[in-house]
Specification:
The chain is α/β, with parallel strands linked by helices. It is flat, with a radius of gyration of 47 Å. Strands 10-11-12-8-13-14 form a 6-stranded mixed sheet, sandwiched between helices. Strands 18-17-16-15-19 form a 5-stranded antiparallel sheet. Strands 1-2-4-3 form a 4-stranded antiparallel sheet. Strand 1 and strand 2 form a beta hairpin. Helix 4 packs across helix 11, helix 6 packs antiparallel against helix 8 and helix 18 packs antiparallel against helix 19. It has 22 helices and 23 strands.
């Protein structure tokens, strides 16, 4: 894409912000070279990666990348046989360990939670053996440790012994020579790697040994006493052997690194990508951003979009769309009202989305796949090139018009400004027509009234404005599409303190046409504000009504529950009274039977039964025995018309069933057949159980259910479908499954990005036929299958 435009819309600042979220230089390198993509699939993949990283950052925290550094040059050197130093090997070991921990952190999550991140983590090689070798060889400061080899341990042990003997010999020498004045000082110093004592120049002949150095004044010579020369020679030999052994060990370990150099290089590339992806996720979290949808129709629709570089507590969200009903959006309004910010917001968010970044806008926002973005924003006046403001703008616009094509977003700030207003407006109209006809999406700002009128009548163009509060005489920065704005120059000048007489004269100098346009715009603005106030009042009234309705529903439910509770308690009390009465009656009856057998029945027992009956009736209020809580019964329906073939119930024959033969025998009687006998009965003595039509419907429904039960599948494969296509098929399956009396169905949607699964579950949650949803067992599809209980 056009690098000049990307700089103008401030993508460079987004790169800096993204780089600050990276954990190592590998990711920062990618962040600093961020570029928008033009391939729809690449963009979709990057946005999906960012979404997974955002979810993992939210749920698990940032990816642990401690110890990961750029070791590509070290790996390259080891591959060609160069020996790495101890500190360099330490960097390699730390990086290998960091990559292993990063892979483990991703693999510790559920297998289906972050599939794209797991694919990237699979490219991180695990080299625990090499890690161990480096750890056993190199210490925390990069030094080769004594235990790196038996030979090195022996040599360093010998060095320790020799240094101890040399120290003791030197101390003995100093003690012997302390009485005289041959020494300049009683100390041991090192010259050319040998232990020496400072001797006065005039006394050097009196001390046997080797002179290794002379002071700059010539007054002191540094002599290695003869008693330690042999020990010093041996020390140098052992030091040389030690250095040779260290070099051998480093070459050997470096060779092991070189053996896996290609794998490690791939791992470094993968960890760089992972750091970059997680930086995108962290930036999304920091900006409170969301994943935009990719419009295949070439539309821009941003909901509550915020410029990411403005303080979130101060930025005013805007709703902006272009590409559906119109492709050219003309924004007007006062200076410092937010017109240029609106242009930059649209351009920057489109570039961010095509770079795989989430955008600071609400869910449901969409952007197209743009082939390029061009912008003419700001003053590019150049003294060196003798370009005026107008010339610099026209030069840039000419360049844009040469390159503009379908799939291009063009942002023009103050089009036609910097020259005669009439000529500037005419040029602007011609430029906007040209870009529209080329299939570009165009957002432009202007103060010209002629362009406002032009956009009202020109196909494919739409006016918009940034809101201006006439009461406070200050912009609100809100963008309103469909309403042209006023520059409000007079109001702004008044607010800034310009004298009244100057303003009055300026208003008189404005032409009548310009004043009429301003009045129309002002009237439209006032009407819009009144409409928004009324809309807000209606919305508040609707909310209040809905809340009151919810309260009434809750009150009704509470009353119903209270009524049911009282009924249940009353029924329980009645049952208890009757149970007690039965028990007493049975006891009395046993006494009466016993007395009858003994021939001594008394009136007293019978009186007790009557008294008990009266008490029960009094307690129950002559109510019938309640087997279950009484429910409110609907009013008795009017008698149904009787037709030949209807099934009826005969009240006078123990509720026997019969079939109507003749529905009209006169005098309110019908003829029926029951059990092979025919008889005439009164209409009052029968109840219709089933009409002929009911029986036919019942038989048809039964047949349909049988057919459905045999033909309706219990699962459907929805993989590869869009959410809308899948919903249509699922609705049909649920209707058939309900008729076939299935208890559950299986929806195979696969795992993928999870969008199909989420869309289906949102739809299913609103269907009354759905009792519940759950994931299938792991051995039956797991998260790729949803089981729907009906």
């Amino acid at each position: 894409m056009d690098s000049r435009t990307l700089t103008k819309i401030e993508l460079d600042e987004i790169r800096v912000a993204l780089a600050s979220e990276c954990s190592c230089s590998l990711g920062r390198e990618r962040a600093e070279s961020l570029q928008p993509e033009t391939d729809a699939q690449v963009i979709a993949d990057r946005l999906a990666e960012t979404s997974e990283a955002r979810r993992m950052v939210d749920e698990e925290g940032p990816l642990p990348l401690g110890g990961v550094t750029d070791i590509r040059e070290l790996i390259k050197r080891s591959r060609v046989g160069s020996a790495l130093s101890g500190s360099e090997l330490l960097k390699v070991g730390d990086c290998l360990r960091g990559m292993r921990r990063a892979r483990a952190a991703i693999e510790s999550t559920h297998p289906d939670d972050y599939p794209l991140l797991r694919d990237l983590a699979d490219h991180l090689g695990v080299h625990t053996e090499l890690e161990g070798v480096i750890e056993d060889t190199v210490g925390p400061e990069g030094e080769v440790v004594d235990t790196a080899s038996p030979e090195l341990r022996r040599l360093r042990s010998r060095l320790g012994v020799l240094r101890s003997r040399i120290d003791q010999t030197m101390r003995d020498f100093l003690n012997r020579e302390s009485e005289g004045s041959k020494l300049q000082d009683r100390l041991v110093t090192t010259r050319r790697g040998r232990p020496c004592v400072p001797v006065k120049a005039g006394s050097k002949g009196s001390i046997q040994g080797v002179v290794h150095d002379v002071s700059s004044s010539g007054q002191t010579v540094f002599v290695e006493p003869q008693g330690v020369v042999r020990l010093g020679d041996e020390l140098q030999q052992v030091l040389a052997a030690e250095q040779e052994e260290v070099s051998r060990i480093l070459r050997e370990v470096s060779g092991k690194v070189g053996e896996v150099a290609e794998e490690v290089q791939h791992s470094v590339t993968a960890i760089a990508i992972l750091d970059f992806v997680f930086a995108r996720g962290s930036l999304s979290r920091r900006m409170d951003a969301s994943r935009p949808e990719i419009s295949t129709e070439g539309h821009v629709h941003l909901k509550r979009a915020r410029h990411p570089l403005i303080d979130p507590s101060e930025v005013v969200p805007i709703d902006v769309w272009v590409g559906e009903e119109f492709t050219v959006l003309l924004i007007t309004g006062p200076n410092t009202g937010g017109k240029t910010v609106a242009l930059k917001t649209v351009g920057l968010l489109c570039a961010m989305a095509q770079s795989g970044l989430h955008v600071p806008a609400d869910m449901g926002s969409s952007v197209p796949v743009l082939q390029d973005i061009y912008a003419d924003i700001g003053d590019e006046q150049s003294i060196a090139q003798s370009l005026s403001t107008f010339s610099s703008h026209m030069s840039n616009i000419a360049r844009i018009c040469k390159r503009a094509r379908e799939g291009t977003l063009v942002l023009l700030d103050e089009i036609g400004a910097g020259t005669d207003p009439g000529e500037g407006a005419a040029l602007a109209q011609a430029i906007l027509r040209y870009l529209r006809d080329r299939g570009c999406l165009v957002l432009t700002t202007t103060h010209y009234n002629a362009l406002k009128v032009f956009a009202l009548s020109e196909p494919g163009m739409m006016n918009a404005s940034v809101e201006f509060d006439h009461e406070t005489l200050a912009p609100t920065y809100r963008l309103m599409i469909g309403v042209p704005g006023s520059s409000n120059a007079m109001n702004v000048a008044s607010r800034l303190g310009l004298r009244t007489e100057i303003l009055m004269e300026a208003k008189e100098l404005i032409g009548d046409d310009a004043q009429r346009v301003e009045r129309v715009v002002s009237d439209l603005e006032r009407s819009r504000r009144r409409f928004e106030r009324e809309k807000a009042d209606l919305s508040q009234a609707k909310t209040s009504a809905e809340e009151e309705l919810d309260r009434l529903h809750e009150e009704r439910e509470r009353i119903r529950e209270e009524r049911d509770r009282i009924r249940k308690e009353t029924a329980a009390d009645a049952k208890a009274i009757l149970r007690k009465a039965r028990e007493e009656a049975q006891e009395i009856l046993r006494e009466i039977r016993q007395q009858n057998r003994e021939g001594r029945a008394t009136q007293e027992a019978r009186d007790r039964l009557e008294t008990l009956d009266a008490e029960v009736r009094e307690q129950l209020g002559d109510a019938p025995e309640p087997d279950e809580p009484a429910e409110a019964q609907p009013p008795e329906p009017p008698p149904a018309a009787i037709h030949e073939g209807d099934t009826v119930e005969l009240h006078n024959l123990s509720d026997k069933r019969a079939v109507v033969i003749d529905p009209d025998r006169g005098d309110g009687r019908i003829r029926v057949s029951a059990g092979g006998l025919q008889m005439d009965v009164d209409l009052e003595d029968v109840t219709v159980l089933e009409t002929t039509g009911d029986r036919q419907v019942r038989d048809q429904v039964g047949a349909i259910k049988v057919r459905k039960a045999l033909s309706v599948p219990s699962e459907i494969d929805l993989r590869g479908l869009t959410v809308t296509e899948a919903i249509d098929q699922v609705d049909k399956l649920l209707d058939d499954a309900a008729l076939a009396e299935h208890e559950e169905v299986r929806l195979i949607h696969g795992k993928g990005t999870g969008a199909l699964k989420q869309g289906l579950r949102r739809h299913l949650s609103d269907l009354p036929i759905v009792k519940g949803m759950r994931d299938a067992p792991l051995n039956a599809g797991g998260l790729g299958v949803t089981i729907v209980d009906l």
